Amino acid sequence: MFTDDNRARARDIVAQYPRARSAIMPLAYLAQDQHGWLPPEAIPEIAEFCGVSAAEVQGTVSFYTMFKRRPCGRLVVSVCTNVTCLVVGGPEILEHLEVKYASDDDVTVEEVECLAACGNAPSMQVNYEFHERLTPEVAEAIVEDYKAGRLAARTVSGTPQ
Amino acid sequence: MTTGQAQTDTELVTLTIDGREVQARKGELLIKVAQENGVYIPRFCWHERMEPVGMCRMCLVQVDGMRGFPPACTTPVAEGMVAHTDTEPVKKIQDGVLEFLLINHPLDCPVCDRGGECPLQDQTLAFGPGESRFTEEKRHFEKPIPLSGLVLLDRERCIQCGRCTRFAEEIAGDPLIDFGERSDRMQVVTFPDEPFSSYFSGNTVQICPVGALLSKPYRFKARPWDLSTSETTCTTCAVGCRGALQSSSNRLLRLLGVDLDAVNQGWLCDKGRYGYEWVHADERVLEPSVRVRNAMVDVSWPEALEAVANELQRAIELHGPSSVAVLGGARGSNEDAYAWVRLAKGVIGTDNVDAQLGDGLPADAVLGLPRAEIDDLDQAAAIVLLGPDLKEELPVLYLRVKQAAVSKKVPLLDLAPVDVGLTPYATAVSRTVPGEEGVAAERLVAAIGGRASGDAGIDAFAAAATGRSGPVVVVLGRGSVAQSAAPTMRAAAAFAALPNVRFLSALRRGNVHGALDLGLAPGFLPGRVTLDAGRGWFAPIWQTVPKERGLDAEGILRAAADGKVRVLVLLGADPVADFPDTDLARRAIDGAGYVVAVDAFLSESTRRADAFLPCTVWGEKAGTTTNLEGRVQRLGRKVSPEGTTMDDWRIAGELAVRLGNDFDLEFVDEVTDEIATVAPAHAGARSQLLRRSRDGVVLPVREHLHEIMVRTGDLNIMAEDGPAVSWDPIRVDAAEPSEEGDAAHEVDEARGEAERLEREAPAHHEWDRAANVGDAPGRDAYALRLVSGRELYDGGRITTCSPSLAPLRKDSALMVHPQDLARIGVEEGTQVRVTSSRATVTLPVRTHPSVPAGTARLPFTADGRGASELIDTTTMVTDLRVETIS
Amino acid sequence: MGRFSGFLVTARQMFKPRLTTEYPEQVREYPARRHGRHVLNRYEDGMEKCIGCELCAGICPARCIYVRGADNPPDDPVSPGERYGFVYEINYLRCIHCDLCVEACPTEAITETKLFEFSWNNRNDSIYTKDQLLVDDDGHPRKQPWEAWAPGQDENLSEWVRATSPSGMAEYEGRVSWSGDLGHGVRDPGPTQAELDGREEID
């Protein structure tokens, strides 16, 4: 459920659009920011704000992989393993991070398709912040910096905090 | 008609399709024009009754001068357009699209319910590549998952055409399904806690082009090639939807919606679609029985008829004809109603006859008010909704009103006592206190007349309606069974002052309009004539005609409770369950001297009968039925009756013979023909005309002869060549009516007959508006006014005896406004003591925002502790006191 | 010759070899693919092959097959997949042994034995039910009391006639394209077209 603060923000967001249903995605991000993921309970509430059925919100949020419908860590590390990154070591970075953070509840490592950063491959995102020209060690160091607060992390939706 | 077509105008254009020059209305879609001219363009997502979306890419064609390959379903025709549907590039596209669709299609056709009538199968055969190059593993999902209690989803088979999701949103207004996930995981989803519990969910199964959506009741019951089909009319409610009834091995297995433009436009509600199950219910009574020393004993038909006839004879001789009363008859056919009216009024001579059970409108209003047709809704200047929740009681009428309001932008005023299914689509809402409907109606009349009404909603509506042509259609019914018909009648009296106003009476029972038209009401004779006006006409035709006006249902029950009714005939009626006052109904059944039940089931009423005559039911008998607009349509006889059941009209005839009057009616068509010769409103509606007329005949026949469409083809669900058509609108070809009168000779005969009766027979009854003006009742400020309506899945026989529908019933609770709950001072869901002037019951109370403050809603469930314990039929409204249980 | 010409025909036939035999004492050798009484086959693991799809009933020109499907019980399935043949009946007073049902069957569930010597005193017996048609636990037909089985008639149950095999389509030559039967295993793919024709392989 939205906090009172976020409920007010939700109303403002809905008011920005000529049709309330256009606010489905912004509200889903808002809910995701609040909970750290998008719990199923949030969906009927979003539906009510947007004047649509819960099934329609469910349909929309399940289309986008950036809506985390299962609990995830505070940091979502997306490692690219598409063609360019593949040839310069993306999979190794992925494997390294997956092993390293397998039991770390704070960090969720995921494999993603092309992040459009081929020029400086291999690349990854931490909460949608780009990091390029990586090696497994550099990647780990970056994640550690985020964990320790030396780098300011965005929310899991990629909203700057 | 879809809005896509609404944008078309009458201007004709000439275009060329595959080298043939054709004419079409400008703006019409190419795919439709091609089909009308014999060129079938394959398609999956396009459905004529829905907005085109161009999702499936199957209908891509070539149009000279247009870049690429436009989809025929989104391309409007234009003057000089040259389209090609069978060129090599188009064929290559069709091959490609089909090969692509089949990549993830499991091809488990042998076990798929759609196999044999599958559009994907058919179109792959006709337009597909023949072979696939895909050798990889297909996607896998768990085989069918339930979307609701009635619909199963096989995600492997889905081709993502979006017909179901679009239907749910566009047509039904219940967007409870949508596409979820992406790419090859894309699937139809519901929200986990919210099943696809739309009242119209079965339609998605019918329009699904693959076997992805499946009917649970039909699952694995038969294959398309072992079904035989008859055209029929659904009698679950009074809308009269056209359907194709299918059976195999003498079991009803499926009802498909037939696209009757004037009525259901191809759609059915789930209760109608799956309600056929009750026909084969184990609870059916199949042998006649009579009470011998307090126990029912199975007897032969002659014995049973003899026993009943003797009782009737004795009652007439000892206590006069008016000691006999007949209740019910709204669930049979027109022929049943006529034969029973002839028996009751023309042989026995009693006028104590009523097809309604105190929960409808007075017959003189239903028969006498100017009537609208359902199609008038689309062209109306405005629609006023004063009555029950159409979504619950007349679901397909709800679809038509919604379509008029949403697609045709007809202003809709909602005057129902609580929020109803149509409220979200209303232009304006005015919630009046139940019982004060007349005040609202008078305000509306004032507002339309240009005076301020004092109600913002009504003023806004009147402004929206101003300047629009067409009739004002009032959907008139009792917004609540807990109040008498008087407030509705007072409103009707006000509305009747509007210019060009027409009414659709929202009575719910299947053939209640047919029964009233044929005189199953006190004071009336067949053909919408009053007893007094018609006495001279019917006296020479029948043996007798009642001397004076008789009692209505409430009067009959009171007389029976007082022991004044010697023989009470229950014609498919269950007053204990359906009459608003259960206690009175119980006392009446107990107090009646001899109770004859003509029914298919034992109910709380018929269980107490002294003679039980089992009758045939829908699907087992031929005949005709009349819907709420007065449209007479034929019923299809698809299965042979089980046991030794008999048609109701035949029972009446057999009893008449034993009372010394032979009707001389051998076949059901002879009854139809007799109605067509004696009943003024029905004059000319002979069985042969009804057989030839595609859309039935609207009463009074003489005013609607010019509308008759003479059929030129048969209902054809499995096409001879080309794809099976059941997923697209199922239609019957008919010739357009013509001015010159060169239609079928049946129409000319009907005209002759109608004109003869117009000269000779009495005039139709017209409603007297002056007699219906009265005052609204006052109210105690602490009381909550009871609003009670039916739900679609109620405790009635169709729901409880259909295994698929029975689990869909909801439990009832007293619904109040949150403010009132706070005032009562209890938590949501607690049991409270509810007291009316008649009884005190204990019920759980819940809040619902749809209920205005000061009112309380309680479903009129046909069994259990529902509203029928509380309703006081002697007063105009029922007020409740709700108290905590200390 | 006149009136004796007819006798000449008879006389000529008298010295030709006789085509008729003293049936039933003498029984001729049956063709390998003769059409006889049907069986419903099972897979090697004992599951029924019939899925109750009714294609056999749909194609049957004599309308002698009655099938009804039902949901497979999830914990104890009768056949692989969702649906199984819940009712399966063949009326042998109507059956013309055309084998179209065998052609239509998508799972090779229904095939024919070579038995044709069966008669009964009761019309009800002419309608074979699923219990009678289904092969037993060894994969052999269940012999009814009124059936006269000759040796070999219950062999090679899945050696059914199929217009497209073994040699209808060149690319299927030598390939086993049917599943194994309970008690019989997977049958040999059969001779190639060239072998049937008695000629050398082309390539």
Describe the structure.
The complex is a heterotrimer of chains A (161), B (886) and C (203). Chain A has helices at 4-15, 24-35, 42-50, 54-63, 83-87, 90-100, 136-148, and strands at 75-80, 107-112, 124-126, 129-131. Chain A is an alpha+beta fold and 161 residues long. Chain B is of the alpha/beta class. Among the domains of chain B are: 3-86, Ubiquitin-like (UB roll); 364-505, Dimethylsulfoxide Reductase, domain 2 (3-Layer(aba) Sandwich); 784-884, Beta Barrel (Barwin-like endoglucanases). Chain B contains 28 helices and 37 strands. In chain B, the strands form 10 sheets. A 7-stranded mixed sheet of chain B has the order 14-13-26-25-24-15-16, sandwiched between helices. In chain B, a hairpin with a 2-residue loop joins strand 1 (12-17) and strand 2 (20-25). In chain B, helix 3 (88-103) crosses helix 4 (119-127) and helix 9 (334-348) packs across helix 23. Chain C is low in regular secondary structure. Chain C has a single domain, classed as 2-Layer Sandwich (Alpha-Beta Plaits). Chain C is globular. Chain C starts with a helix and ends in a 6-residue tail after the last helix.
Class derived from helix and strand content of chain C: little secondary structure
Coarse morphology of chain B? globular
Task: Describe the largest sheet of chain C.
Answer: 3 strands, antiparallel
Low-confidence stretches of chain B: 1-8
Q: Structural class, from secondary structure content of chain B?
A: alpha/beta
CATH architectural designation of chain C: 2-Layer Sandwich
Question: What is the typical, i.e. mean, pLDDT of chain B?
Answer: 90
Principal-axis shape of chain C equals globular
The value of Rg of chain C in angstroms is: 21 Å
How many strand segments of chain C? Answer: 5
| Strand order in the sheet with the most strands of chain B | 14-13-26-25-24-15-16
* SSE ordering of chain C: HEHEEHEEHH
Residues in helix, % of chain C? 10-25%
The CATH topology name of chain C reads Alpha-Beta Plaits
CATH superfamily of the domain at 364-505 in chain B: Dimethylsulfoxide Reductase, domain 2
Number of strand elements of chain B: 37
Question: What would you say the CATH architecture of the domain at 364-505 in chain B is?
Answer: 3-Layer(aba) Sandwich
Beta-strand level of the residues of chain B, as a percent range?
A: 15-25%
Radius of gyration of chain B: 28 Å
SS summary, helix count of chain C = 5
